[in-house]
Amino acid sequence: MAVAELAPQMSVRFTEATLDYQDRRVWGDLSLEFDEPSFVAILGPNGSGKTSLLRVILGLTPLSSGSVEVLGEAPRRGNPGIGYVPQHQSFDQDLPLRGRDLVQLGIDGHRWGIGRPSSTARKRVAEVIEAVEATAYADAPIGRLSGGEQQRLRIAQAIVGDPRLLLCDEPLASLDLRYQQEITKLIGDWQRRTRRTVLFVTHDVNPILNLVDRVLFVVNGRWAAGTPDEVLTSERMSDLYGSHVDVLRVHGRILVVSDSTGSGFELEEPHHLPEIHEGPGPHARSSP
User: Fold this and answer.
1) How far is the C-alpha of 68 from the C-alpha of 199, rounded, in Å?
2) How far is CA 80 from CA 128, 133, 143, 205, in A?
3) Which pLDDT tens digit goes with each residue over 26-45?
4) Residue 169 carries which DSSP code?
5) How many CB atoms lie within 10 A of CB 234?
6) 3-state class (DSSP) for residue 94
C-alpha cells in the first residue's frame, strides 16, 4: 500500500492584513500564506515595510487590521519556533563576549546573563558552530572578528534551537561579495537539509535567486506574490510602482529599470538580476 504524502504545514498565513504607521499605509490587504518547506525572498525598496513584516511575525508590531498566524498560532514574542538573523552590525571590539557565548544565547538568552550551560547545551552549541564552519574562532572575542565571521555566528545563534521558521533581515548588507556568497550558502544548505521555511528580506535578489521558491514584493502600500517569473515582470512591476518599469533580459541577465519621468516611487538605481528560468509555481497575486 502506498504511503500518503503528508500535507505541507503552514508556516505563516496573512489574512487581509494591513499595517499603517501614523498616516501612512505601509502595506494593505495582505492575504497569502507560506507553507513548509519554502524559501521566500521579500523584496522592495527602502521604507517599503519589509522589516515591519518580520516584526509582525515576531510579535513585536501589531497589525492595524486583519490577522496573521505563525506556526499555527498568533504571533508572540520569544517564539522558540522562530530563528532570526539580523542585519550585520559590528560588535564593540572590547565586548567581553566570545562567539560561542553569542551562539549559546540562542538557547538561554531569555535568562539573565549567560549562565552555565548544561553538557547537552554545550554539545548542541559546538555542533552548530561546526556546521557553520566557525569552530576556529568560536572562542575569540566577538568584536574582534570580521563581519562575515560574525554573521556565521549569528546564523548559528538563530538555528541552534532548531527553529521551524528562519527570518533573515538583510543578512548580506555591508558584507563583501565573498562573505555574501558564504552566508547565502549557509542559509540555503540549512533550508535544504531541514526542509523548513526561510523568509529572506533583501533589496537585491541576485545572491539568493537560485534558492528562491517564491517572491513577495512590497512597495507603495501594495504587494505582489508568486514565483520570480510571475512577479518580476514589466507589467507587474509597473503596476506596483505606479510608473513605467521595464524588466529586460539582456545577455542572459535581467535588468529592471524605472521610468524616471513617471509618477510613483522611482528606483534609486537599476537592479541587475540573473536570468530567471521558467518553472512551475502558484499564480502571482497582487493587492487591489
Assistant:
1) 15
2) 16, 24, 26, 28
3) 999 999 999 999 999 999 88
4) E
5) 14
6) coil
